[in-house]
Amino acid sequence: MALFLARSGHRVTVLYTGAAAIDYMDVWPKRCISAGVSLIHLDARRGEMHPVLLRETCVIFEHLRTRDDDLVLFQDWEGPAFSSIVAKRTGLAFAQTVLGIFAHGPTAWLLGANQMLVRDQRTLAQLHTEGEAFSGADVVVSPSRYMLDWLRTSGQVLPPNSTALPLYLWSDPEDIAQVDPSGLSSVNTLAFFGRLETRKGVDLFLEAILSEQLTGSDFDVVFLGKPASHTPDMIRGIVGQRRPDLLPRISFETDLDTDGAQRFLRESGALAVIPSLTDNAPCVISECLRKGIPFLSTLSGGIPELISAVDVERVLVEPRPASLAKRLASLLGQPFAPAQAAYHEPEVARSWLSWLDGLPRPRRTPVSDAKAERRHEDRIAVIVTHYERPVLLNQALEALAAQTYTDFDLILVDDGSPSLEAERGLAAAENRLWPFRLKVMRETNRYLGAARNAGLRSTDAERLIFMDDDNLAFPDLVETLDRAMTMSQADIVTCQMALFRNPLHPADPAELLTTDRWGFLGGPLELGLSINCFGDATGIYRREVFEGIGPFHEEHGVGFEDWHLHARAALAGFKTVSLPVPLFWYRRLPTGMSVSTNLFANTAKIWRAYADQLPPGLQRLVDLSVRNALTGDLA
Asked: H or E segment at 274?
């Protein structure tokens, strides 16, 4: 597709995020370069971004936001588009760029196809990032109607501009010259073509070739694909138990690239067997159609959409061992011609070019309009909690005074600081002229949750931002959170945290290039049972959230007030979005609450919030679900 679009006059870039370096002497990089396609290797492992699952999507977003593309088309699997799409929905970037998803094999579909269940935190996170990317994209394109129908039936929200377009069947003159329309003069070798995994039909293929229907038949077998759920030794073991006479006639080609596998099939005279249990629009089918390679496949998923109606019955069978064995038995020793594609290259080319021409063209927003978008009728209150840290409090207030948007109330809640130094700091803050409206509250010491709730009760502002006195807001924190809430219509907006460890002094802005960052997914609800995937307390909240679920918990000596609130909000159906950028410095100290309080007591508070949603006889299911909560795989 990249080659075709570049040759059609488009400026095309392929952004590769794999670990291995690009081999520019390999055939595909050479083809791309010759066609004017730009290849960029973006090392998505760089940077100290936590949790690790967010690292790739954040690195991709940070690179793409520096570009000026009309369209970015993302792969669906593992959600690489997630951060970029959240950024667009919240007004951070891509106002003039169309963000699209290529729906080919999302995790939710793969789980069902491989007959697997969700077994870890990483998969829950992946399901969330992919689902949010689909629903938030400007466009979705898939190589089959089947996949779009499956997504909708499964409950996935898709944008109105969702289209099925076949893969572009690119051919060069060398391909066309080598295509033999007559195909095989006699089928004598069967080549399983695809990854050696259950979904691709390796078990189905083995059952067929080892069945009684093929006993006594004369044929060779080659497995042409990389090991996955099955390895060559496993396959040899299965064959050796049921039909040892076939072992000498079995071979494996597991290291061939795409071109090498196609070359092998053309030169060996083997019949490619592609017995997928379920599939979308397998690349191997398109490759066989393009190269004129004879193949036999199954009536599953989107495969029939790729093949000409005149050939469907001849080259496709039901994905059952008996059906496949019967068809193979009838083909052995017989000639077999390649199938024809349902679409011809010129037709597919016109479809793709027409689709590109019809994409929505975002309006170039004048600067004056962009500023107007940041004006809101909803009043904002920033609630800062403080206890016995007057030096740090002053730094926090200075950071808030430097905001690009200062039309807010600042409510400073002192949680019963006993020292004279703390009282002097509060008095100095009261007597100083600030760009925001300051109100100081002196409360008795009742812990962090109670202090936040006191500030919450003292204001009727519609939008509420919480800050702790040891953290430092970036200059655009208030403006960015406010705009993100308006544009996304979320109930809660959180953001990444930039970590620093200086106990007395502010962070050096230069540290932002190298420091650790901690980000959040904003969900899903299931993952929030075992890790805080929602966000820190520092974020912006609609008042309706607290009216719906109540305030922060006030249990003395127990932390995770923010996680507990976020979890209850999610359980109540409120929507959280977490921005893929840091908006404040989070001071990590060895005396912090997350370190000084009991971890089990803290997390038990979260578990109880979930258990309370279940009937009494099912509440212990929460215990089973969080057995890995303290050593989860997303740290």
From this structure: strand 271-274
Local structure of residue 13 (DSSP, 8 states): E
Which one-letter DSSP state was computed for residue 219? -
| 248 exposure class (CB count in 10 Å sphere: 0-12, 13-18, 19+) | exposed
Residues in the chain: 635
One-character DSSP codes across 312-338: HHHHEE-SSHHHHHHHHHHHBTS-BPP
User: Mind listing the pLDDT tens digit for each residue in 381-404?
Assistant: 999 999 999 999 999 999 999 999
Q: How many CB atoms lie within 10 A of CB 257?
A: 11
Using CA atoms, how far apart are residues 627 and 519, in angstroms rounded to an integer? Answer: 23
Q: How far apart are the first and last CA of the chain?
A: 37
pLDDT at residue 369 in the model: 47
Phi and psi angles of residue 48, each rounded to the nearest 5 degrees, phi first: -100, 70
194: which 2 tokens? 């695809």
d(Cα 539, Cα 86) in Å, to the nearest integer?
15
Report yes or no: 6 and 38 within 8 Å, Cβ to Cβ. no
Collapsing DSSP to helix, strand or coil, 452 comes out as helix
Q: Do domains 2-164 and 380-598 have the same CATH topology?
A: no
Which tokens belong to 357? Answer: 């021409």
User: Residue 263: which residues within 8 A CB-CB, separation 6 or more?
Assistant: none
β-strand pairing of 472-473 with 576-587? antiparallel
Question: Which residues, other chains included, contact 285 with Cβ-Cβ below 8 Å and sequence gap of 6+?
Answer: 274, 295, 297, 303, 306, 307
Closest residue by Cα to residue 129 from 48, 55, 42: 55
Find residue 13's DSSP bridge partners: 38
Say if pTM beats, i.e. exceeds, 0.85.
Answer: yes
Second-level CATH architecture of 173-342 = 3-Layer(aba) Sandwich (3.40)
Cβ neighbourhood burial of 411 (10 Å; 0-12, 13-18, 19+): buried
Gap between the Cα atoms of 294 and 300, Å rounded: 18
Report the sign of the C-alpha dihedral through residues 533, 536, 540, 546, in that order: positive
CATH assignment, 2-164: 3.40.50.2000
Provide the pairing of β-strand 98-102 with 71-75. parallel
Do residues 165 and 322 touch, judged by C-beta distance below 8 A? no
The 3 state secondary structure assigned to 332-390 is ECCCECCCCECCCHHHHHHHHHHHHHCCCCCCCCCHHHHHHCCCCCCCEEEEEEECCCH
Domain boundaries, the chain: 2-164, 173-342, 380-598
- The confidence band for 366, taking pLDDT boundaries of 50, 70 and 90, is very low
Record the tokens describing residue 16, joined without a space: 């590769």
At 412, phi and psi to the nearest 5? -100, 115
The tens digit of pLDDT for each residue in 113-130 reads 888 899 889 999 999 999
> Rounded to whole angstroms, how far apart are CA atoms 258 and 237?
27
Q: What is the DSSP string of 235-263?
A: HHHHHHHH-GGGGGGEEEE-S--HHHHHH
For 537-594, the pLDDT digits (tens) are: 999 999 999 999 999 999 988 889 999 999 999 999 999 999 999 999 999 877 666 6
The sign of the CA dihedral 57, 58, 63, 69 is positive
Average pLDDT taken over every residue of the chain: 92
Cβ-contact 243, 210 below 8 angstroms: yes
Fold exhibited by the domain 380-598: Spore Coat Polysaccharide Biosynthesis Protein SpsA; Chain A (3.90.550)
